[in-house]
Design goal:
Length: 477
Amino acid sequence: MPERNKKTILIYDTLRREKREFKPVHPNEVRMYTCGPTVYNYIHIGNARPLIIFDVIRRYFEYLGYKVTYVQNITDIDDKIISQAIEESTTTEEIAKRYTKYFQEDCEKLGVKPPTHAPKATGYVEKMIDLIKTLVDKGYAYEVEGNVFFEVSEYHEYGRLSGKDLKQMEIGERVDDVIRGLKKAPGDFTLWKPAKPGEPSWESPWGRGRPGWHTECVVMSTTLLGKEFDIHTGGIDLIFPHHENEIAQARCGSDAPFAKYWMHNEFVNLKDKKMAKSEGNVILVRNLVKEYRKEAIRLLFLQTHYRKQISFSYEALEGCQSLIEKFKYYYSGIKKQIKLIQKNKFKKSEHKKPWWYNRKIREIDKAMNKDFNTAIVVSIFFYILYKTYFGPEEFKFYGKKLLDDLDSFLGILPRDEKKTMPFEKIVKNKINRKIKLRDEYRKNKDWEKADKIRDELLQMDIILEDTKNGTKWRIKL
Ligand code: AMP
Ligand code: ZN
C-alpha cells in the first residue's frame, strides 16, 4: 500500500451534511455502490455526469492503492420497461436486454470502467421477498390487497437524509389514486405490488407480483458489498425518495449501519432546467459521442466540482474538444521527444524529477482529498503538460510519468496514435458541430455570433440553408 493512501480524504456526506474523514470499513478496501439505470431507453448527458464523476472517484481510490469493489445495478423490471415493451410490441426481457447493451456501449464510449459487479434486479427477487417479509414481521411494513407498503412513521429517523419531515411527504411517490387509497399515509412507499395479467411476476406470500424499485438497491448492495459498506452514490434527485427509502429498509430490516458515506452529484441543466427525460430536453450520449471525443465530454464535467450545477452548452463542449486536441498534440509530442532523447544520449539515470514534481503531487493530493476537487486537478494537468512539452530534456520522462498517473483516473488524454476517422468524416462532423453551435446562438438571439459562424463556414465554401427541418449545408461549387 503506497504511503499516499494514508493521507486524509474528506468526503462531503449528504447524510451528515458535512465533510467527513474517509475511514474505510475494511482496511485498504473501498466498497462503492451506484444506482444504475432502468433499462428502457437511451441515456442522456445528465445521466453521464454521475457515471463519469464516480468513475473518476473510483479510479482515484485505485490509483491510491485501494482495492475497490464497485457495484452498479441494472433495473430490469419496472413499470417503464413494461410500457416500453407494450409500445414496441415485444417482451420486457427483450427491452431490458437491448437497453442494457446500449447502456454498456455508451459507458464504454465515455471511457467509464465497467463495474466489478452489475447485478440485475430480476436475479435478486427471492432475496427482496425475504427482506420485505422481515419488514412485515418486525412491524415496519403492512399488506393491503396484495400490496406491501413501508410505514414511514414507524422509522424514527425517516427524512434524515433528505431533511424532509413526514408532513411534507404527500407527494413522495408517483402513485395513482387507487394505491393512495390503500396506504395508511401518503408517504408510505411500495415494497411489493400485485402484477396485472400478462405482466412479469413472482410468487410471494402476498400473491403474484413484483418488488418496488427502492428494495432492489438495498438487497443488491448489501449482498455484494456487506451489511456495512463505504460509499453510496447517485445524482441529487435520488436523495428523495429513493435513497431515503433505501436507508429506511436497510436500517429496519437489520441493525446493520448500511452505507457509511452518501455522495450526490448536482444536475446538468439545459437552459436553467434540469435535463430530464420527462422534460423532453435531453441530449443523448449516443449522439454526442459520434461528434465529440469522450475525453472532451469527461473534461466538460471534470472542470466543475461535482456538487455544483453545470449548464450544458455546445459552446463549452466545443471548447473542451479543442483543448483535448491540444492535449493530444502536446502529449504525442512529449512521447516523440522522449524517444528521440533516449535514442540520442540519455540513459534512464539521467532523467531528473522536475523541480515542480513533488509540489504538483502535493497539490493534486490536496485537491482530490478535499472532496474530489477535479476542477483544480484539471488545471494542474494543463500545467504539467505544457511544462513538460516546453521544458528541459531531463524533465520529460518524469513529466510524462506524472501525466500518465494523473490520467489513470481522469481519462482525458486521447491515446489513439492516428486519427481513426476518415478525413471527410472529421470535416463533416466539424461542420455539423458548428451548425449546432449556431443553432444555440440563434435560440439565444445572439445573432452576431450566429452570423459569425455562417461567415466562417462561407469562407470554407460551405453554404448554410435554414429550412423547416433544421439547417442544411452544401458545398459552393
Ligand atoms: P435516471 O435514469 O433518471 O434514474 O437517472 C440515472 C442517474 O442519473 C441518477 O443517478 C440520476 O440522479 C442522474 N441524473 C439524471 N438526470 C440528471 C441530470 N440532469 N444531471 C445530473 N444527474 C442526473
Ligand atoms: Zn438505488
